[in-house]
Amino acid sequence: MEEIEKEREMMRAAAAKTAQKIIQPRAAEIDATGEFPSDLSDALGKQGYFSLLLPEEYGGTGGDITSFCSVIEEIAKISGSSSFLILAQGMGTLPIWIAGNPSQKERYFAQIAEKNCFTAFALNESEGWTDVPSVKTTAKKNDKDYLLQGRKSFVTYGSIAHLYAVFAMTEPGISVFMVEDGTPGLRFGEREEKIGMRGSVTADVILENCRIPHESRLGEEGDGSRIAARTLTLSRPAIAALAVGISQGALDYAIRYAQERVQFRKPIASFQAIQFMIADMATQVEAARSLTYQAASRIDGGLEGTEEASWIAKLFSSDAAMKVTTDAVQILGGYGYMKDYPVERMMRDAKVTQVYEEANQLERLLLGRRLLEG
Question: Which of 344, 357, 358, 363 is labelled catalytic?
Fold first, then answer.
């Protein structure tokens, strides 16, 4: 256990160094241009950040959910958008991790580890969002393949991913298929313009009579709902870690600013109103961090109650991120509203953590039902 903790701390320290050295000089530019930072993503890939969840025998770093969260948090302190790239890669990888057979893992993990291939999690649809029973995309089984037809919405890495985990309706229920870039009939909608996370690419994935071989299906037919639920349970702490990182970055900046900004011939940090705001912000960040790593630890330890802990961590951390980043803008006053300062970007980036994959309102509904059912 001590060795595992040492490896996690080394991974966290390396991520913090990467964020400071490679990402910080580009963070504002990426947000301003809204362009996908291909050179930055290449650098992250070469350092193994897109293979965090891959077992070592397949060329990955063998990281667990706790390590995954720590890397995401450290990078999010500097750039939520850059951290989001790693999070989205993990979500696209998780279905293979959960349901892939040895042959599939060998095939797909090799592409990710050796070629830095991007992966995408394609569950959402315009009508159903993350409501699994509302999936309209279909997969009709033939003797040699499946014929996929449908449209997936709000797919991170849509149009630039090499591998897409597509959820589609088969006769026994929802199933999951790995669709590779270049498959005939696979095309994409226009890139979405977002208020935050502007360095990530979001686009619809359109499937028009895509023929997918049987061996590209993950798990059994009808196993898709379980795979989707498990993927979301494993990824919610990572979304929470993204929120924690953004919050910590905003808090750190607000503290430095309050110590340097002079009003009425004294630093505004000397004013009780600012001190109270900083104290409340720090409390929320630390509480969110505790919930996040408690959930990650339960998952890594194979303990019961992981789904509830995962929901709670994501709910609290994302709401805290919006509160903390908004307060950071308030502490900076008029400067906080200007793009010359990073806190307004942090506030915009934080918003996605409340709506990504499952909106907080839906998660509250699901969590409430689970707790009341006992």
Answer: 357
- Is residue 171 part of the annotated active site? The answer reads no
Which residue ranges make up each domain of the chain? 2-115, 119-222, 225-373
Fold equal for 2-115 and 119-222: no
pLDDT digits (tens, 9 = 90+) for 218-236: 999 999 999 999 999 999 9
Among 308, 301, 342, smallest CA distance to 325 is for: 342
What class is the 2-115 domain? mainly alpha
pTM above 0.70, yes or no: yes
* b/e per residue 195-219 (b: at least 16 CB within 10 A): ebbbbbbbbbbbbeebebeeebbbb
pLDDT in tens, 42-84: 899 999 999 999 999 998 888 899 999 999 999 999 999 999 9
The torsion region of residue 173 among left (phi > 0), alpha (psi -120 to 50) and beta comes to left
| 119-222 placed in CATH 2.40.110.10 | yes
- 192 φ/ψ sector (left φ>0, alpha ψ -120 to 50, else beta): beta
Burial (CB count <10 Å: 0-12, 13-18, 19+), residue 105: middle
Token pair belonging to 157: 């890495």
Distance of CA 331 to the CA centre of its chain: 28
DSSP states along 148-208: EEEEEEEEETTTT-SEEEEEEEETTEEEEEEEETT-TTEEE-PPPP-SS-TTS-EEEEEEE
Contact 104, 93 (CB under 8 A): no
* CA dihedral sign of residues 238, 244, 250, 253: negative
| Amino acid at position 173, single letter | G
Distance of alpha carbon 289 from alpha carbon 167, whole angstroms: 32
- CA 319 to chain CA centroid, nearest Å: 16
Q: The domain 225-373 belongs to what CATH superfamily?
A: Butyryl-CoA Dehydrogenase, subunit A, domain 3 (1.20.140.10)
